[in-house]
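Complex record, two chains
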Amino acid sequence: MKEKFDAIVVGAGPAGNAAAYTLAKAGLSVLQIERGEYPGSKNVQGAILYSDALEKMIPDFREDAPLERHVIEQRQWVLSKDSYVGAHYRSDAFNHEPYNRYTIIRAQFDKWFSSKVREAGALVICETTVDHLIMDGEQVVGVQCDREHGDVYADVVILADGVNSVLARKAGFHGEIEAANVALAVKEILFMPEETIQERFNIGEEEGVVIEMIGSITDGMMGTGFLYTNKESLTIGVGCMLSDFKTSPNRTSPYAMLEQMKRHPSIAPLIAGGEMKEYCAHLIPEGGYRAVPKVAGNGWMIAGDSGGFVNAVHREGSNLAMTTGRVAAETYIEARAAGKPMTEATLRAYPEKLKNSFVMKDLHKYRDMPQIFHHNKQFFTTYPDLVNDAARTMLTVDGVDKKTKEKAVMSSFRKARGLPGMFGDAFKFWRAVR
Amino acid sequence: MSTATFPIVNVEEKLFQNRYRVDHGRPHIQIKDARICQSQCENKACTFVCPASCYKAEGNGAVTLITDGCLECGSCRIICTEHENVAWEYPRGGHGVLFKFG
């Protein structure tokens, strides 16, 4: 007998879980297939959870979701080799419930989310890799798994199989990912007593700090570093465009970059004594608006990282994943209720809905950013050094008058970039973020 | 621009903290044609970009691959654009890296 479901969801990350949860809640028969030992065991993220996208599905998630700390302070650091210039935003408004964002540990969070999916009535199968989509002519009608009798069928297949987007690529729905459209990030989790974290970051129990960094730590590449406070651990990581790693003149390895970052004099004291318990690597789709492939076709939709739904500027991904997963599910639910066939013409409603949501609006806003930053590495090299030098010059008391210091600072900027260069950079920056 | 002197890092020490279920005898990634790495690829970017250092440059110009420590990121496949010499699949269900924290 052919096993057939209303919907098959491939992957149990935020996108897949959101899709499977929404479908199961609507009373449909859902099969969700995950290749990891348990949901979360293949998934990597910084990680910050933005409440809003989850709240839309599970309003009372705070009651039992494994959350680390709610974030009350965001720090942006611009680093040189031995210093940083920072902008910090801390507000008591972030200390009032309901909290807006939390640090989380993904393996635990995904396991929890998956338990909600099961409770909602979906059949979740782990330790199973989907090898191929099953086609009937142009129509996706099911999936082929790497176990005996591994062919299963459904009305619609939602591909939430992560950044490598293996299934859609094999099916020819889109081509290979370009190295310039993904960042390779590595990170470590460092354990230490929660009191130590609270003292070092000037926070109370349950309160958290996020530090985002650019500058010398990425060795001239387009990339960022981060340091997040969990309950009893810190997550520290760095990521750069894969194309930059590939052409790195110093042949810099991502782990060497991370190790160097951990030794930075501004970072080392914060992480000192931390016990490293895991080292991860992951790709992040950062091509933005122009890199989003076709995400709906005959019998299939793509959600989450697999569709390139990441807002790199704001470090948002999991909320886009949850939203796209939910919207894909809703598209199917509505089409089915209307008795429509699951053709591309029907499922095109999915990208249309995304166009009207924050997902594509935000990606569209920053559509020029990846290209501009790719071709203007000075934002990651020259400027961080200049800004740090300027701060040091102005803050060093050495008998030189302030006017002379100011001139020296201005001349260092002019020498490095030239006046037209600086105006050009300001314009490019404005274009990238407008 | 300040160029950092990068420390020598033993990535094996990092990987040692991770949990794996290795699918013995069935590597999920393979070099399609070893001769291409040896004779046609100058850069051999996989040997320093792979975050688990699965690819090693040998003295004779060859590149060897051991996937036991693989973090399943996909970088090696994507950077091998000139030669497309990496056959890349996910491990069989339940195998490969098993993140405790992710």
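Note: Chain B is about 20% helix and 15% strand.
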